[in-house]
Specification:
By secondary structure, the chain is of the alpha/beta class. The protein contains 7 helices and 6 strands; from the N terminus they run H-H-H-E-E-H-E-H-E-E-H-H-E.
């Protein structure tokens, strides 16, 4: 029952530059994506090809990695890592993109985080490096940036660190209350993902 495709459809399917899911994921050192990453890249490509709302915006965007993480209460989250230089382009469509991906991956919350490199304290002493270590590449700065990415587009209005009797420190983060209705159901996932990525405990409240 094989049916020949019209020539224009055949050409589009096999030679169109954006019909290969590999255009939507570029891993470091040319590594191959795993099965889950390939499925996410394919969904991004499908959205680019079928969503009139996202097509033009997604055409030049790609991810560097994707992973599914287990959260408390049986919840799951999907983290998409994107190139730091593309983070603002992703931000422009983030709400629409997350909404579409969460339809595809039902029951999972999707978070988009920019890929950043932490430079150690010995960076400025390295013979191969020039100048002092950029503040944006310190451990503290990168963890703060991850927190901003996780809650985006909600604004962080304040932070406070509390020390428990056992010596553990908990970061209390205040979020803009104007987004409470949309974000309240996601803050437990935000906290779990942040802890997994930074090994720091955090709680979110609305200010």
């Amino acid at each position: 029952n094989w049916k020949a495709l019209p020539l224009y459809q055949f050409t589009r399917s096999f030679f169109h530059p954006n019909t290969n899911m590999s255009t939507k994921i570029r891993k470091a050192a040319g590594a191959e994506p795993d099965e889950f990453e390939a499925s996410v890249a394919q969904e991004l490509l499908n959205l680019e090809m079928t969503s009139s709302d996202l097509k033009s915006s997604l055409s030049d965007l790609y991810i560097t990695a994707a992973k599914e993480v287990e959260c408390a209460g049986g919840r799951k989250a999907i983290i998409l890592y994107v190139p730091y230089k593309l983070r603002k382009s992703f931000n422009k469509i983030q709400q629409r993109l997350v909404r579409e991906l969460e339809k595809k991956y039902s029951g999972r919350q999707v978070l988009i985080i920019a890929q950043r490199t932490i430079l150690g304290k010995n960076y400025s002493r390295s013979q191969a490096s020039q100048g002092v270590r950029p503040r944006s590449r310190t451990l503290t700065a990168v963890h703060e940036a991850i927190l901003d990415d996780i809650v985006y587009p909600t604004e962080i209005t304040g932070k406070r660190t509390r020390c428990k009797l056992d010596g553990k420190r908990i970061l209390k983060v205040y979020l803009d209350s104007k987004d409470q209705a949309n974000v309240e159901g996601r803050i437990d996932t935000f906290a779990d993902v942040y802890t997994k990525l930074t090994n720091k405990q955090v709680t979110f409240v609305f200010n």
